[in-house]
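Re: Re: C-alpha cell formats

Sure, here are both.
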Amino acid sequence: MPFFEQLIGSQAGLLLAFVLAAGVVVLTGMRLSIYGDALGDRTGLGSGLVGLIFLAAVTSLPELVVSLSSVIQRTTIAQGADLAIGNMLGSNIFNLLILAIVALLFPRTFDPTKLKNPHTDSTLYGLVLLAIFAGAFLLAQNSTAWVPGLHCNALVLLIPVAYGLILRREHQQQKKKTDEEEYLPAEQALARLPAARFYGVLGGLCLLIIGGGIALSILGSRMALPPEQGGFGLEASLIGTLFLAISTSLPELAISIASVRMGFLEMAVGNVLGSNLFNLLIVFVGDVAMRGHSLLHHASSKHWSSVGLIVLLTLLAGILLRTRSRKSTVVTAGIMVACYSAAALFLM
C-alpha cells in the first residue's frame, strides 16, 4: 500500500500510526475483557479460573504476537531477539506498575484489605518462572546448545511445564472455593447470547487484537531505523522494553482501571499477575520459532537490568497487596512509580 508506506516513511507518520495501532489494541482489549468474564458465566468455570487462563491470555496476545513477529520478521537476528525479549520483560514491568497506577488513581476503591487473598501464590509463581528464565538466559549466553527437534534452550523448556503445573494447582484450588461470583448486567446479557454470535464476536476480537499486535511489531522495528530512513535511531532493546511493552500492556491497564472503578479489585490484580505468568511463555514460543538460532543467546545483556527491576517491583507489589492503611498503600505505590521512572531514565 503506497499511502501506508509513505505515511510511515516519516517520523511523524510513524508515530501517528503507532498511536492508532495502540488505540486499536486498547479498545479491543477492553471489550475482550467483558467477553472473557462473560465466558466464565457461560461455561460455569467462574471468573477466577477463566480470568487466570483466558483473560490473562487474551490480554497478553499483543505481547505474544509482537514478540513472535519480531523474531520472524527480524532485520537481524540480534534485533529480533532484543525486540522479543525486551517486549516481554518490559510488559511484565509495566504490568506491575499498573497496580501502583490504579492504587494512586483510586485510593478509596483500591483497598487491599477487601481482597479475599493477597495473591501471594501468584506473586511467588511469577518469581519462580522468572528464576527459570534467568537461568536459561545465563545458560544461553555461555552456550548455544538446544533441545533436539524443538531447537530451544533446555531450561526454556521448563517454563511451559511449570506454567502447566501452576494452572493445574490453581484449578484444584478453584474447585474447593464456594464463594459467590458477581457479574455485571452487561456480562449477564452477553452470557445469554446465542453461542454462534457470542463465540463469533469473541473470535473476531481475538483476531483484531492479533492484527494490532503485528502492526505494533512492524512499526516498532521501523523505529530502530536511522532518522534519515524515517526511524528514530533507537536501540531495539529500548524499543522493546519501553515503546512496544507499554503499548501492548495497554489492554491490561484499561481492564484494571475499569475493574477497580467498578469495585472488582480481585479481577484487576488477577489479570495483571496472570498476564505476567503468561508473558513468560513468550520466551519458549520465540525460542522455538527462531529455528537454527538461540533467542536468548542473541539477546542483549542489557536485559538483565529489566530482570532485576521485575524482581524489585514484584516484591513491592507483594507488599502493596498486603498494606492495611491508605497511607501505606499510597507510599508503596509511589515507591513503585519512582523505581520505574528511574529505570526508564537509565535506559534512555
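Second one below.
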Amino acid sequence: MFFEQNRVLYNESVGGSCFKMGISCNLRFQDALPGQFIMIGIKDCCDPLLRRPFSIHRVVRDIDGIELLYKVVGRSTQKFSLLQKGESVSLMGPIGSGFSIIEEAKRIFMVAGGIGVAPMVFLADFLIAHGADPKNCGLFVGGRAKDDILCVKEFESADIPVFSTTEDGSYGSYGLITSLLTDEIAKDKPDIIYACGPHPMLKSLSRIAAEAKIRCQVSIESVMACGVGACLGCAVCGCEGDEHPFLHVCKDGPVFEADLLKL
C-alpha cells in the first residue's frame, strides 16, 4: 500500500451523474489487481475530511495512471466531480483483495448493477491479458434506467457479449438482470461468476449461484472511514456458525467468495 500526492489528468462526465477521472500515479500502482480499490482525498481540503473509497476502473499504462468511474451521490462525490486537470489529490492504495483468476475457468460471467460495473472493465482487461477467450465470457449489466447502463461499448469493442436490462425497459430487456442471468445459466452454465452491485442483486445472485453450483465472487460496496481495518465501520456478516462472524470489506474484501457471506 502506498500514500501519494497525485495530479488529476482528466475528469469528465460520461452521462447522467457519472464521471471518469484519470489520475497520475507511481508505477507501483500498475501492479494493482482487478477488484482492489483506492482511498482518495482532496489535498488541503477539510470537506470531505476523510478519503473516500473508489474501485480501480482501469490501469492506463500509456499515461502512467489509473482511471476511476464514479457516480455523484452526495457532497463528497460532488466535490470530486468539480476537480480540474492538474489539481492535486491524495491517494492511498491499492487496497484489499481482488478477484481471483481461476485458470481452469473457461466460461466466465461478469454481473454488474449500475455503477458496480466500475471494477468489471479492469477485470475484463485482466482476464483477456491472461488468456481468456472474450467470446466465451459475458457481461450482464442492469440498472433502473438507461442512464445507469455504462461501459457497454468497452465490452463490445473487446468482443465480449453484453446482456442488459433496465427496470423501466428504457434500455435492453425489461426487468432485473438476475432474471436474464438465470435464463443464460440454463442455456450454458459458466464456470465462475464475478459480480459487483447493490446488496439485493448480490443476495439474489448468491442464491442463484449456490443452487446452480457455480463458484461466485462478489465485490461488496461499503462506506468506510479508514480503509485499513482500524475503524471497523465496514463490517459485513459472515456465514452462520463461522468462527469469524464478522468480516471487514476493506481488510478481508472487498472481494469475497459469495458462500462466505450472509447476504
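The chain has six helices and 16 strands. Helices lie at 75-81, 118-129, 152-157, 177-187, 199-212, 249-252.
- S.
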